[in-house]
Amino acid sequence: MSIKIKFIKFCLLIIVVFFGCSTEEQKNEPGQVQKDKFILPPKPEQSLTQNQNEPVVDSKDAEEIIAVIKENIAATEAEDKKRVIKTMHKDSPQINSTIQGMDFIFANYDMKFDLEQAKILEVNGDEAKVYYKQTTRAIKGDGFPPTRITGIHHMKKEKGAWKLFKTEYISNQQIK
Fold first, then answer.
1. Does the predicted TM-score (pTM) go above 0.70?
2. Measured distance CA(11)–CA(15) in Å, rounded
3. CB atoms within 10 A of CB 158
4. Beta-carbon neighbour count of residue 58 at 10 Å?
5. Which among 39, 80, 104, 107 is most buried, taking Cβ atoms within 10 Å?
6. Angle, helices 3-17/95-108, rounded to nearest 10 degrees
7. Quick one: average pLDDT of 22-44?
């Protein structure tokens, strides 16, 4: 198989496989913005000065949503399919292609992800949307150039727990 075909196949698989972001664990106090990445609810005295374009998100929901995204990528980096699937909603339209993609990726590459940005756009009942920007690098395996992916994770609750439902990709650009 030519390098170009391998690259195209890989790009398609990376789009399907990775819901992820970062494995770093970061903690913050409710009502604070964490390193300008995660939007959490303001403290009562801050509510008058809140930016009108930023949603108010319950800090418990925000922490749980971000934790699921981080667990998904940690499981992907560990090449643990069962853990990856546990982060996904059982009705995800991307679950079958994700499973197929993991087999190819895990057999050919060791991947590293760096979350550059994650911002909760909205939480509406049992559904949420999270904008993210991440870099993806192959630390083992040939033919995968570093990429920067942006997209929106659509999250849904399943039995009271947040899960990744689907990912809508905005861009996938090769970086140096």
1. yes
2. 6
3. 15
4. 13
5. 39
6. 130
7. 39
Of 1-10, 39-48, 83-92, minimum mean pLDDT range: 39-48
pLDDT mean over 97-123: 93
DSSP 47: G
Question: Is there a contact between 15 and 172 (Cβ–Cβ < 8 Å)?
Answer: yes
The proportion of the chain whose per-residue pLDDT surpasses 90, expressed as a percent, equals: 63
117 CB contacts (<8 Å, ≥6 apart)? 37, 131, 132, 133
What is the phi-psi region of residue 118: left when phi exceeds 0, alpha when psi lies from -120 to 50, beta otherwise?
A: beta
Sheet containing 147-158: order of strands: 110-124, 127-140, 147-158, 161-174
To which H or E segment does residue 110 belong?
Answer: strand 110-124
Closest CA to 134 of 18, 40, 12, 17: 18
